[in-house]
Description:
This protein has helices at 3-28, 35-49, 73-76, 78-101, 104-125. It is mainly alpha-helical. The protein is elongated and about 45 Å long. The protein starts with a helix and ends with a helix.
Amino acid sequence: PYGDLVHERHENFEEMGDAFKVIRDQLRGDAAVDFDAQAAAAEVIVGFSTEIPTWFPAGSGPQDGYDTDALAEIWEERAEFDAIAEDFAPKAAALQTAVASGELSAVGAAFRETGGTCKRCHDSFRAD
């Protein structure tokens, strides 16, 4: 019953990853600084940031037969997963605020904080 949700979850994370790449590439100097593009990317990240816990209902993991990079630990250690997800939303909002400031150093600092939360989740709850 969750095949569509598992697919949508994957697509949402891909879209969020693409948004992170827009900002990352500008911070690295791989792309010209474009705060409008960063604002659009931050909007995507913020928009998804509060939804993440809803993408992982019981019965939608690999242990349920779905082909997903999500590890069974999400459901086995739900409180930890939810805590990281809850930490992500305010960090995403801070990234959006930093982008709106037009200060690249502020964007960099907020990007590292937000990305650190992503890494915490990936390290514990993602297959690759």
